[in-house]
Design brief:
By secondary structure, the chain is of the alpha/beta class. The chain has 2 domains: 153 residues, 3-Layer(aba) Sandwich (Rossmann fold); 45 residues, no CATH class. A hairpin with a 5-residue loop joins strand 4 and strand 5. Helix 1 crosses helix 12 and helix 7 packs parallel to helix 12. The protein starts with a helix and ends with a helix. The structure holds zinc ion (ZN). Zinc ion binds next to loops. The site of zinc ion has 8 residues, from loops.
Length: 247
């Protein structure tokens, strides 16, 4: 399986990688949409994740929003895994043109990738909702910068500082979406990894792909299995680590 993927990568003229939560779970970042995450969210915070990280909860109960966000969605010490490292190497060798990710952990950049489109934003960028001053992750994690030790407050105008991530009920960034669509539409090889393609907006993006080879790397079935030229049911880290040795 990885032999065929290696051949496709070597012959690809424009290769795009589209990754989901599965790419990050191998770095120890749990997917909050999975059963344990759902269960814990209800038990500890009283709501399911899609409500806890919704725009309305952020407005109505910022204290609960930030408690959940900081305790569950910020994995400051997570390290890139074999998949992130291999993708960065492929970019370096000119064999990968773009990474499109649904993750907000910044691990592709930490691994050394430069061409990364973050559909859902990034934990590493924070901004004041009133004056738009930019802050880093450290700032909001420092209790001294937070009201009641929880809600980050702007040092300039006392507005709330929030993560530059797309919350439920919020739209994706138009510029990032068009760049992602352009990248997929012009790719001749599209590798989709670590996603079963059920979470919005992943599935929708694939219909822009016009290229010759679609590769799916995911442990379980995906909604695009029928259109794929190659399906690998394996851990994304294991596959990418192996394939890089064959190129
Ligand atoms: Zn401000």
């Amino acid at each position: 399986m990885t032999d065929k993927l290696a051949i496709l990568l070597k012959s690809g003229r424009n290769t795009v990688f589209f990754g989901g939560a599965g790419v990050s779970t191998e770095s120890g970042i749990p997917d909050f949409r999975l059963e344990t995450g759902l269960y814990n969210a209800r038990r500890i915070y009283g709501y399911p994740p899609e409500q806890l990280i919704s725009h309305s909860l952020f407005k109505q109960n910022p204290s609960l929003f930030f408690r959940y966000y900081k305790e569950n969605l910020v994995a400051k010490d997570a390290k890139p895994n074999a998949a992130h490292m291999a993708l960065a190497q492929l970019e370096d060798r000119g064999l990968l043109q773009m990474v499109i990710t649904q993750n907000i952990d910044g691990l592709h950049q930490a691994a050394g990738s430069h061409n990364v489109l973050e559909l859902h934003g990034s934990n590493w960028r924070q901004y004041c909702v009133d004056c738009d001053k930019k802050y880093d992750l450290e700032y909001i994690l420092n209790e001294g910068n937070c009201k009641d030790g929880v809600i980050p407050v702007c040092a300039v105008c006392s507005g709330i500082v929030r993560p530059d991530v797309v919350l439920y009920e919020e739209g994706l960034d138009d510029a990032v979406v068009s760049a992602a669509i352009d990248a997929i539409a012009s790719a001749d090889l599209l590798i989709v990894g670590g996603t079963s393609l059920v979470v919005y907006p992943a599935a929708g993006f694939l219909r822009y792909f016009n290229g010759n080879n679609l590769v799916l790397i995911n442990k379980s079935e995906t909604s695009a299995d029928k259109s794929a030229q190659l399906i690998i049911r394996e851990s994304i880290g294991k596959v990418m680590e192996e394939v890089i040795t064959k190129i």
